[in-house]
Amino acid sequence: MSANAEHSHPAPAPVGGKLLTPVTITFLIPIIVMAVLLVIRFTRGIGAVTNLNDGYPWGLWIAWDVVIGSALAGGGFTVALLTYILNRGEYHPLVRPALVAALLGYLQAGFSVMLDLGRWWDFWHIFWPKYAQLNSVLFEVALCIMAYIVVMWMEFMPVVMERFGWKRARDRLNKTLFVFVGIGVLLPTMHQSSLGTLLVVFGNQVHPLYQSKLLPLLFLTSTIGMGLSAVTLEAAISSMGLKRPFEREILGKLLQVGRLLAGIYLVVRFGDIVYRGAIGSAFQPTLPALTFWIETFLFSVPLWLLASEASRKQSGKLLMGALSLAFAGILYRLSAFLVAYDTGAGWHYFPSLGEMAVTFGLISFEVVGMIVAIRLLPILPAAEPDTRTT
């Protein structure tokens, strides 16, 4: 597949270098800790590791590992949409890094769902028609996430084939890759909006500031912004860690899209709260009200920080804008799924050390996976080291 012919970029190439470095060894430690805890979880039950209870059947593993993790991985389908569907060839260098990050993020999300299943040995029921629950939002989310992982593997295979010189197989797959790209753009829009629908089902158990029939739209809009910010942050980290040029111009255009979506999100969110008569809840001394104003401020930062074209070419402001947009989406999801979710008197939840350790282990797995991928496979465009001083 080719994006706009007028945009030419260096061909991707493996970065090379050692796989075992102080950085990777450091991140391997929480992965080992996670593995030990998961042995306990799968042998002694979910209660041996988590603080989940009948009032709070989901916790950090769903809120962070699934809902937030998959949203930060939204850069994969977003960059594919911009590059191949909207034919914006200037974003082509970001396609493979975004795809790898999305694949790792969704592998984490899919695995985390199985961690959270009480009867995890029955996970295969999701694939068996006899157990299909066609009216269930969770069923649709599970199917979409699993299908999207398969689609991303198909999109990723040309990278592997290119690395090992399987040119004929790669050429054959490329002829049908447009089908997988199209499906890969469609599926995330379905399950990301459905993650918002999950909260609609819970009615007044969710705080008025976060309960809305527009949750599917709000979740999808913020997901795209989070995905774009994650792509920017990944580019910044690889630029600093590998001493490569920081693509300010491309990333500035990318965050301009995120900035527009942040503005749309805020207008829809405030308009909905006012229309439902819930605006008074924002001024009450409650934790959901506090998180609401913090995330609102974070969503607004890109609007004024990156307002001019000149500001979108400054590395510092791009990083601040991306961080703000990412943390805004993270806080919004944590608040909606945990802070604003109240099942009644007598029920309380706070993540256990085991839950936190597993989550940190999964994040570490993504970091190590990304390092291994860019060192061994043609992910990043070939570039000369950036020797400029800043």
End-to-end separation in angstroms reads 37 Å
Mean pLDDT: 88
Class based on secondary structure composition and strand pairing: mainly alpha
Number of distinct beta strands = 0
Helix content: 55-70%
Strand content: under 5%
Q: Give the helix tally.
A: 11
Oligomeric nature of the chains: single chain
Question: What do these coordinates show?
Answer:
The protein is an all-alpha fold and 390 residues long. The protein has a domain at 206-230 and 240-349. It contains 11 helices and no strands. The model is unreliable at 1-6 and 385-390 (pLDDT under 50).
What characteristics describe this protein?
single chain; 390 residues; mainly alpha; 65% helix; globular; disordered N terminus; disordered C terminus
Topology:
Elements: H1 22-44, H2 60-72, H3 75-85, H4 95-116, H5 137-163, H6 167-200, H7 215-242, H8 248-276, H9 287-305, H10 315-339, H11 353-376
Helix pairs in contact: 1-11, 2-4, 2-10, 2-11, 3-4, 3-6, 3-7, 4-5, 4-11, 5-6, 6-7, 7-8, 7-10, 8-9, 8-10, 9-10
What's this entry about, in short?
The chain has 390 residues and is an all-alpha fold.
